């Protein structure tokens, strides 16, 4: 940092402490967030992934021959706009070339009508061929290509529909994979068994993307294998491929019926199967393949659920992977509680809306491991009753508790009981932690089957989700020496990295995880001079940028250094600051510098810009940009800093 920059930063840091500028930043940010609140009290912001979801939606319309050309042309504008300088498409803003995303985007653009000799298509094709061609895409991409006849079905690992018959004790059972895998797999099993061919009315093909003609490729399913399990399961795949044609037809019919019954039970209205695009799209194709007419109630409902994910903009359109209203409302509610008081009308309305979304009647798939545990969680989406989310439940529970309305007490108690019941058991490394949707979803060998080349088949406990549960339980009165809390805190201590950080499974990455755990340890009453807290503080201080902000690359899930990026982002800066304040560092000059950076980056309308992605669906596979993160997290950080200064304290009183 040169002398002029240091002087400018010092001036900014001093100005943020004068009160007036800080109050103004909080006021404008709060007003901006309130403008986005819906009349019924909830918030929902767009949730953006990479090119794969809008590209798959385009191909879905061609599979069904329900082509909405004006919509497709607007999706084409979006896809061309996010093409990378490398010629292909990345998994996140300004990311590296990804072959699977690139093949899907190219296929979609060609289906929309882009000429193969157009410059952007030539660049994409050259990049794909240089990376090994479409034959080197991942399993889900090859399954999509097989539906269009672009590759033979042997390009896809064998997953017999008869999986539906397997007993719970069997090494592979649907309850042993994550909820998102389960809801995607079940309708896909029907498609893989019946092997339908897309209507594809324009006859679009992508043979030009293959280095070797698709029919001549002999190594679609190959290593590198991550362990000996991979080689074993490759052998199982070979054996199943030989045996599958001889499976009894009656058994397959019963398996089909079970798969359809599974989907119909979890159809979830217009929020769709599992509330996630891949599962919903597979359910649409399943019903179509089974001969359901478009106006059949199940088929029509699934189609509306897909369409609900579309985001039409002025000159472009795109498709979301899912909707995030409960998450957005819980997080925005915490920011507004900090900015204008927990019992304000804004927060009251959010809490009433949230309380009405609690899942109290449906016993979801989590009950396979926890029979007899009463429901009481919240989903991530508007509705997803079979799959409440532990993380959302903790965030919402803390907001209802902070709001203080006695009408919330029963909801909080039900949420607390459900979260306690969902804690992972056993003597292994995961004991005491929480996964996002189910307990003991830790059959790690399944991440090595050929179908799981993405390595994200499971939902094991993670530090960030566990931290949120600790924060909620502590905020609502559970002492640190309670056996539930003691096991959870022990898990968090085991999970701390050598550099003092914690891994962030659902947010990017070590900044997110470290913030989450520091909040939990503070809420549980762990002294701020505890060695684990001091190491975490050191990590955050070491990763602060010269400009005062923080940023972290999505590539930190691979080999990029933790907590670092070429630029600061509003959400990651807010997380670092919230973590430092939870650790008792509100008076540290680094916090003032960070607050000054947030205030300097705020736009006149009270909002922030943030192009980099700062969240994750599956590390190294699927990343997310929550459009709300850049709004409510900076507000939460600025308002908390203001409130600590007003209260002349460095102790954060809440779990979040």
Q: What is the average of the pLDDT values?
A: 95
CATH class of the domain at 48-205 and 220-319: Mainly Alpha
Q: What is the tally of beta strands?
A: 5
Count of alpha/pi helices: 23
Largest sheet, order of strands side by side? 1-5-4
Report how far the terminal alpha carbons are from each other.
Answer: 33 Å
Instruction: Identify low-pLDDT runs.
Output: none
Q: Quick one: biggest sheet?
A: 3 strands, antiparallel
Q: Specify Rg, calculated over alpha carbons.
A: 25 Å
CATH 2nd-level architecture of the domain at 48-205 and 220-319? Alpha/alpha barrel
Q: Strand-residue fraction?
A: under 5%
- Assign a percent range to the helix content: 40-55%
Q: Kindly identify the CATH topology of the domain at 48-205 and 220-319.
A: Glycosyltransferase
| Global geometry | globular
Oligomer: single chain
Structural class label: mainly alpha
Give helix and strand order, one letter per element, not per position: HHEHHHHHHHHHHEEHHHHHHHHHHEEH
Description:
- The strands form two sheets. A three-stranded antiparallel sheet has the order 1-5-4, with no helix packed on it. It has a two-stranded antiparallel ribbon with strand order 2-3.
- The radius of gyration is 25 Å and the shape is globular.
- α19 (510-523) packs parallel to α21.
- It contains 23 helices and five strands.
- The chain starts with a helix and ends in a 10-residue tail after the last helix.
- It has helices at residues 3-16, 20-35, 52-64, 69-81, 99-112, 119-130, 139-147, 179-194, 228-243, 249-265, 277-289, 297-307, 325-340, 345-355, 390-403, 409-421, 463-475, 483-495, 510-523, 531-543, 570-582, 589-601, 629-646; strands at 47-48, 310-312, 317-319, 615-618, 622-626.
- The chain has 656 residues and is mostly helical.
- Among the domains are: 1-35 and 496-656, Glycosyltransferase (Alpha/alpha barrel), CATH 1.50.10.20; 48-205 and 220-319, Glycosyltransferase (Alpha/alpha barrel).
- The longest helix has 18 residues, at 629-646.
